[in-house]
Amino acid sequence: MNEKFLNNLLNSISVSGYEEQVQDIVTEEMKEYTDEIRRDEMQNLTCILNPENDVRIMLSAHADEIGLMISNIREDGRLQVIDRGGIVPATYPGRQVRIKTKNGEVYGVVEAYRDLFKEENLGTKHFLIDIGAKDREDALKNVSLGDPIVPDTHIRKMTNGKFTARALDDRLGVYIIMEAIKRAKELGCKVGVYGASTTGEETTKTGAFWTSTRINPTLAIVVDVTYTSDCSGMNPAEMGTVLLGGGPVLCNSPIVVKTLNAKMEECAKKVGIPVQREAASRLSYTDGDKIHFSNQGVPMVLVSIPLRYMHMPAEVADEKDVEGCVELIAQFLANYNA
């Protein structure tokens, strides 16, 4: 694995609507491997291979993460916030946080006290963030309204090839599609490949729609995380048996084109990559839904990364699954025949 690239992505702050830092990292990483890089008004980034080819395969993964945003600063200097995306409020009180400002990072703590945890409907309206400011005027010397906030977490390697970090959803997907472009180029890929690091998936999903309408792809491969069934609180009856380390996950969903699932399985079998299947009764609840309904309709296949503890401050993934996703997508691109 390209640990430097991945760690740079995971260390960045990319709360939905504030994805610029991730896109800068991707641009720097991919400029030597692609023929063209495009960036639009909403900060969607598309890395392109073989733009002259009439076949255009879109790879999509979202750059944004869930988090908080400063909505108000009180007279005592405490920060009030709203959420950006589907946070789990109970994971924030008592936690150190990082605030991305125009002058660099500022650190703080989400206030916590025992009675706070008795709130039946705990939410961001109960949060106060202490940055050490004396008052509102002092706070405004360090932060601004609208600054994004994330938990102050770490990247840690675990046993048996597992690793943990904040917001693997879906910076891990961005890593995968970019590494797949590099690998597909090595394999002699001839079709047009448009690797889109999209914005706003956790909030509006506008990024996927904007990008797809401008690419007008022949088909799309969407990479996002999915729940595993090998941890507490998950019921395999609802979405199937998905194991961490079990390989890339294909989706039995009415929005996924079955022939593309079959082509993915064929590519996986050819190079010995194990694949898993998950079940979905309706939409995929990924960028794939917006892409599928864009233009005159875009055929879509979903390649998911098994993930434990989604939307928690410490998510867990497996290096084997990541490498399997990269190779599977690269093989699909290199062997695609329209």
TrEMBL record:
InterPro entries: Peptidase_M42, Peptidase_M42_aminopept, Peptidase_M42_dom2
Keywords, ordered alphabetically: Aminopeptidase, Hydrolase, Metal-binding, Protease
Class of the enzyme per the UniProt entry, highest EC level: hydrolase
Source domain of life: Bacteria
GO terms, biological process: proteolysis
PANTHER family: AMINOPEPTIDASE (PTHR32481), AMINOPEPTIDASE YPDE-RELATED (PTHR32481:SF0)
Official protein name in the record: M42 family peptidase
Species in which this protein is naturally found: Coprococcus comes
Gene name of the encoded protein: ysdC_3
